[in-house]
Amino acid sequence: MKVVRRAAKRIFTKTKIPRASYVINQYVGCEHACVYCYAKFMCRWKSYGAWGSWVEAKVNAPTLIKGKYVRGRVYMSSVSDPYQPIERKLLLTRRVLANMHKGVRLSVLTKSDLILRDLDVLSEFKDVEVGLTVSGLDRKFEPYAATHEQRVAALKTLSENEMRVYAFISPIIPHFTDIEAVVRETKNFVDYYWLELLNLQACGTKCVRLLESVAPESLKILSNETLLKNYVRDDLKKILEKMNVAIRGIVVHPAASKRRWIVIRRDGVMRPISFV
To answer: How are beta strands 261-266 and 247-252 bridged, if at all?
Structure first.
């Protein structure tokens, strides 16, 4: 693993991520090397090697964030995982959290139970939510991330420590991801769910080839906007209504365009809001 240490010029970046105003990326790149990772587009500008073989660490991030306050929710992180393995050694995420203004409205998303190490710092924030990606996918898709069982256990521990927690079920591969099983495992200690279907445009050739071998019918659905809408409306919606859990939103990426179809649950009804 190649670790590139560099100084950043700024720490908060404006974002169009749903329900967030800013992102913070103290790392760029990710050791988890998930086959479907959308952030691999960063390789266009980072000539360090293949995605998953390098991590860029913004070593001055803890200093840069001191005394900074922004309005709106801050999402950590969009092009990395804040608790990937290198964090055990560098403690960059922990030091950023320690120095961050505790009035910042913070949302942290990770695939690692390492986040439990920082419960003490996270509990100092006035408004914080913590999410773990739990999709039930195996090592073919997520070779170096924490196991599904470790992530579910971390969600439970976070909840027991009075954290507001959410499960991010992503990527959903139609009729391949067992959404019911994930919800059944987590519904007793998760406050709400975000869901996202696989982004076929951004997941890359390697992921598409993997889908061709393990889930060809799912690939057909993801490749056709009409089939995709039918799946969300007829299959996914029924599953979620049966499970009776709080859903913040479902993000759908039509294969034929760069739009996102966002479905938000309002007043007990799943409604398509817009393509954005």
So the answer is: antiparallel
Instruction: Determine the straight-line distance between the first and last CA of the chain, rounded to whole angstroms.
Output: 36
Q: Do residue 178 and residue 257 come from a single domain?
A: yes
Cα–Cα dist 133/95, whole Å: 23
Q: Is 58 domain-assigned? A: yes
Q: pLDDT (tens digit, 9 = 90+) per residue, 85-141?
A: 999 999 999 999 999 999 999 999 999 999 999 999 999 999 999 999 999 999 999
Sorted by sequence, the CB contacts under 8 Å of residue 270 that are 6+ apart come out as 237, 240, 241, 247, 250, 263, 264
Take residue 138 and report the two structure tokens written for it.
């195996």
Q: What is the pLDDT of residues 193-245, one digit of tens each?
A: 999 999 999 999 999 999 999 999 999 999 998 999 899 989 998 898 898 89
Domain that holds residue 258: 166-276
Q: Are residues 118 and 196 in the same domain?
A: no
**H or E element that contains 55:** strand 54-58
The answer to whether 13 touches 23, Cβ cutoff 8 Å, is yes
Q: Helices 148-160 & 179-186, crossing angle to 10 degrees? A: 30
Both 179 and 93 in one domain: the answer is no
Q: Supply 48's token pair.
A: 């360090």
